[in-house]
Amino acid sequence: MLPKQITIKVNLIYAPLSSLFPLSFCWFTVIATMRDLKRKDKLVEAAGEAYGNTLSLAVLDVCSDESVKQCINGIEDRRVDILINNAGVGLVGPVESIPIEDMQKVFETNFFGVVRLIKEVMPDMKKRKEGHIIVVTSVMGLQGVVFNDVYTASKFAIEGFCESLAVQLLRFNIRLSMIEPGPVHTEFEGKMIQEVMQKEYPGTDPDTLYQFKTIYLQSAINIFEIMGQTPDVIARCIKKVIEASTPRFHNLTNPLYMPIIAMKYADETGTLSVQGFYHMFYSLGPLLNVTAAVMRFSSFLKRRTVSPD
Length: 309
Prior knowledge:
Layout: E1 7-11, E2 29-34, H1 41-47, E3 55-59, H2 65-73, E4 82-85, H3 100-128, E5 131-136, H4 149-170, E6 174-180, H5 187-198, H6 206-227, H7 231-243, E7 250-252, H8 258-266, H9 271-283, H10 285-295, H11 300-304
Parallel strand pairs: 1-2, 1-4, 2-3, 4-5, 5-6, 6-7
């Protein structure tokens, strides 16, 4: 177990990982951040006695250069031993119905928000020649998923950025790790799906709209129910990565997604992956929904969705 004086900086926006505290990081000094501290109640309740002891809160907006700098300057000696980037926003829907401004907002948080924090803490880590940067991305940063085009693009972008940066950081004894979850059971995800179902999508042709609302959304609901993990599982994965003597760069939290990733890299042309997903979605989509509805009453897949521990 790492000593208590290790300082972890965790940024929270829409990722409700309150189960991280105090169960997973009770041996660390944690600085959790959020844009609005008025929303801290659930986090403070989950932290229990750790709040005010090994856990403190700070204001941070990852979309603001000034906010990022002020937050890090507020830490004693600006010392961040471990930076956990888990702020993120989602966006789903037919591309033709999504304004460019909405796409830019996704990249502002999911890509530039991560980059801002890394740029702020990296020089100090380089001087100390130690540190660990952890970025919570998504399995969609490795494999594109239909109707998640913009969100997937933002995750691909940060995966590529970190994969490039990791090589340079090795020279300074700084580790960089990616945490790649699939669906996670949270209030935010459930609320987002409900909002998406009720939303209008102007400019979308009838066939695409039918595929999105009738096939995709129902499939998404079923996949979340069957394959979704709890935030605590993701927290244990992060804890394991932190404590590893030689942490891995890629860390898929759900083993059920490994065959999908393997299929992508098994064919250098990309045909197997693209055509496979095409037939799975457009040809087998309705059948998959029926199958998923039946499987919902079985705990078979849930038993196979194991913790990274």
